[in-house]
Design a protein that fits this description.
It contains 15 helices and 22 strands. The strands form six sheets. It has a seven-stranded mixed sheet, with helices on both faces. It folds into two domains: about 5-230 and about 435-455, Aldehyde Dehydrogenase, Chain A, domain 1, CATH 3.40.605; about 235-415, Aldehyde Dehydrogenase, Chain A, domain 2 (3-Layer(aba) Sandwich), CATH 3.40.309. The protein has helices spanning about 25-40, 45-60, 65-75, 80-100, 135-150, 160-175, 190-195, 210-220, 245-255, 275-290, 310-325, 355-360, 375-385, 400-410, 440-445; strands at about 5-10, 15-20, 105-110, 115-120, 125-130, 150-155, 180-185, 200-205, 225-230, 235-240, 265-270, 325-330, 335, 345, 345-350, 365-375, 390, 390-395, 415, 430, 435, 450-455. With about 475 residues, it is α/β, with parallel strands linked by helices.
Length: about 475
């Protein structure tokens, strides 16, 4: 493996820094320190929750620097970066309170004996995070894990190693012990060494379905618990009675967030036939109003793709789109403000067959298919017609339609008359190839625990029972 990771600004293509790749010995040391710290860390809930609160305050104190680092390393617009930082602080605060939650239950069995079910920290946990939301997606999983009492070894995406270190350093400044939360640096080989380590008992991974499958296989070999949030192909299902302007505007913006490099991005807009032509015209107008530009500017809607490799991947799908359907607008390479990064205008595609790769595969770029359907049943079937099931939205003014469609769409989150309405209180995760497990909410804490049955033989009923 290479000895150094180079972190690059995707807008300017300038080098931001170089970071040494962690050696096998350093991965071993990080896991060993986390294991040694586990018992004391897990046993001091009051301290853990106070540190989550203090970490939130440090994030708020350093919010401008964190946002600037996110812009520089991900290319996301500064407005999005500020929201990401704010979400980190809010999540840390939330779990500082929810960490007082006592899971499990107790009861008297039919023979008069007592059973007490308790939840205990699962142990040393590996966290492997992506480049698109390096702060939000780390804290989304790490905060409930700390509340549960696990110790953590984090391996960030190479592209966002520096901002991840910056965020974790704020935790250290708040008092989080370095052996309770540590970072290792590298690509796939380092991740494999971490996931495959015998002492690691759980893995939290956010990223592509392909890599998630590989991590799942490696974790299964060690019988480790996995939290996998993987790819998506999320659809907005817009019925004819919906507020069309709000549905289209919201869905389009959700499709180009972080230049479309988001697992929950709205990559498909399904419109009921009576309003389909009207919707295509209006979406084209709305897309023209989006600003591709310098992500440091307040007016920018889309920044660059993360790399040339990702740019080439998206351009490949645009070639497929031009063959299988019609690119109504967008898909052009541009260099706003003279920046050399890999920018694309957002593309709207119509006329695609449902089996097109543009419909079926996770592109991770600003490419949105606009598709027509007739009945409620048709709309649900079309939304379910991909191997993914991370999120969806239903737009309608009829509560029965909203309920019927939402219950039948196979996705971990379905929003009615909204999109990306995530909150720390509500669990999220995927169906089908979009993942396993749940993060956020009480379920986010329970994800990092194991359930134990403690049985009390009482009333002279000691012994065994089949």
């Amino acid at each position: 493996m290479s000895d150094l990771i180079t972190v690059t600004d995707p807008s300017t293509l300038e080098t931001l820094g170089e970071v040494p790749v962690s050696t096998t010995a350093e991965v071993e040391a990080a896991v060993g320190a986390a294991d040694a710290a586990l018992e004391g860390w897990a046993g001091d809930r009051v301290r853990r929750l106070a540190l989550l609160r203090a970490w939130a305050e440090e994030v708020r104190r350093d919010q401008d620097a964190l946002a600037a680092a996110l812009v520089a390393q991900t290319g996301k617009p500064v407005v999005e970066a500020r929201r990401e930082v704010a979400s980190c602080a809010a999540t840390l605060d939330f779990y500082a309170g929810l960490g007082r939650y006592v899971g499990g239950r107790a009861g008297t069995l039919t023979d008069g004996s007592e059973a007490h079910l308790v939840r205990e920290p699962i142990g040393v946990t590996a966290f492997i995070t992506p480049y698109n939301y390096p702060a939000t997606l780390l804290i989304r999983d790490l905060a409930p894990a700390i509340a549960a009492g696990v110790t953590a070894v984090v391996k960030p995406a190479p592209q966002t190693t520096l901002v991840t270190r910056q965020l974790v350093e704020l935790g250290y400044r708040a008092g989080v012990p370095r052996d309770a939360v540590s970072i290792v640096v590298g690509g796939g080989e380092v991740g494999e060494a971490l996931v495959g380590h015998d002492t690691v008992r759980a893995v939290a991974f956010t990223g592509s379905t392909g890599v998630g499958r590989a991590i799942g296989r490696l974790a299964a070999d060690g019988v480790k618990q996995t939290l996998l949030e993987l790819g998506g192909k999320s659809a907005s299902v817009v019925f004819a009675d919906a507020d069309l302007e709000t549905a289209l505007s919201t869905s389009l913006k959700a499709g180009v967030v972080t230049a479309g490099q988001m697992c929950m991005a709205c990559t498909r807009i399904l419109v009921q036939a009576p309003r389909y032509d009207e919707a295509v015209v209006r979406l084209t107008e709305l897309a023209a109003d989006l600003t591709v530009g310098d992500p440091r500017k307040e007016t920018t809607t889309l920044g660059p793709l993360i790399s040339r490799t990702q740019f080439d991947k998206v351009r490949h799908y645009l070639d497929v789109a031009a063959t299988d359907g019609t690119i109504v607008t967008g898909g052009e390479a541009v260099h706003p403000d003279g920046l050399p990064g890999h920018f694309l205008t957002p593309a709207l595609v119509t006329g695609l067959p449902v089996d097109s790769a543009v419909v079926q595969e996770d592109i991770f770029g600003p490419v949105i298919s606009v598709e027509s359907f007739d009945t409620v049943e048709d709309g649900v079937a079309l939304a379910n017609a991909t191997p993914f099931g991370l999120a969806a939205a239903v737009w309608t003014s009829d509560i029965d339609t909203a309920w019927q469609a939402s219950r039948r769409i196979r996705a971990g989150s379905v929003w009615v008359n909204g999109y990306n309405r995530n909150a720390p209180e509500i669990p999220s995760g995927g169906h089908k190839l979009s993942g396993l497990g749940r993060t956020r909410g009480v379920e986010g804490i329970e994800q990092f625990t194991e359930l134990k049955n403690i049985h009390f033989s009482t009333g002279g009923r000691a012994g065994t029972q089949a």
